[in-house]
Fold this protein.
Amino acid sequence: MTERIWTAALVVIGDEILSGRTQDRNVAQLATWLNVQGIRLAEVRVVPDVQDSIVEAVNALRTRNDYLFTTGGIGPTHDDITVDAIAAALGVGVTIHPAAREVLTRYYESRGGITDARLRMARVPEGAELIVNRVSGAPGIRIGNVFILAGVPHIAAGMLDALTGTLEGGRPVLSRTIGAWVAESEIAELLHATERAHSQGADSGVAIGSYPFFRDGRTGANFVIRATRQELLDACGDALIVGLGSMGLETFDGGI
Amino acid sequence: MTERIWTAALVVIGDEILSGRTQDRNVAQLATWLNVQGIRLAEVRVVPDVQDSIVEAVNALRTRNDYLFTTGGIGPTHDDITVDAIAAALGVGVTIHPAAREVLTRYYESRGGITDARLRMARVPEGAELIVNRVSGAPGIRIGNVFILAGVPHIAAGMLDALTGTLEGGRPVLSRTIGAWVAESEIAELLHATERAHSQGADSGVAIGSYPFFRDGRTGANFVIRATRQELLDACGDALIVGLGSMGLETFDGGI
């Protein structure tokens, strides 16, 4: 039986990423979290703090993936337009969420009190639910298959933590890394043949990625095998070790 | 007179980014380099090592930007399909570039000699030119407004270095950072009003970004002002310092 592959996309919203000022951490963080939920990160777009750009990306990706995540642009300042843009993308209005207002009022009680700017963070697209924020004040937002997270990585991490186990997904992706001191160009054929020999179709495929590096003046590479079935992962990895060994190469199960 | 804004887009090609295994560094690196060329990074997409995905992203972005860059997928292994995908996107064939073959033959002379797998790295879309690679063997590729760079960040950096000053662009973006120990929600109004007061239209705009942080138990934020005109940058920054000062806040020109 063909297993369904669950996919997610991410829209990173922020001029600070596109200007090079801030190094994004949310792509890798979300990808790693999704792997464990049995969901594959299929595509990412980084867009500026411009409503039309956000709307276009959100609508393109939410329709062709099971889930869509966004990071960034949910703070209190004028450049935080994510909620308005997503409401526009979905064709709904924006409203103050009573529970978000309560959370924020409580959070700011000992921090100078609630203000109009802070109340902006209680605004949600109509019909949305909240995602718990255990780290700071403003909650994340879920509406349909769209998940609106904070841009600050450790706050986004807390929101993902709150979502763990709540999304329907498939089998988690398993991986195995095998390293060798070899130029990847010397074993390109072997990699290709090994991958082809072990792939059994869309629902039970194996993919081998090749990641070269240079260290202490030597050339090496790690080969990462990914599969959703343990037996395929094992068989493919063992075959690769045998193949590399037959070329006289020492291998490192777990990578170099 | 309205000045033209030059834009570029980036397609990051690589399963290793989408799986979370590798932390991308090329977005920030390219963005920073583009700023100095007077070109704005307008949009980024991260796509898997799948031809259809690459073709779709390349064709969407190359037509609506002055320049399109790609990183990743130009090595010797079976998962390196960038050249074929871009040739398909442009509707041209793939050919061995004689100068690339020469470069690779020379490079591998002392490294075990040229092989079929290594020769793959001399393949280019028909009509392409090479981009010098001062760091390792395989060159980058330019075809029309598409620039194909390596995925390994320090190799991509070398290719960008070789391109410095060769692309037509506008005025470089200038920036000024002002920091204060304040919750951004307290000065949201001030930021908005200051930005609005100093923006003089599309060709002479000012943008203020707000970047909160938490350090040593205190809440602070850096405000980054960006403009292409020095006089606007100065005036907007000075006004922001006066505004923050009138609220009793100490400011740090250059950021915290």
Observations:
- Chain A is about 35% helix and 25% strand.
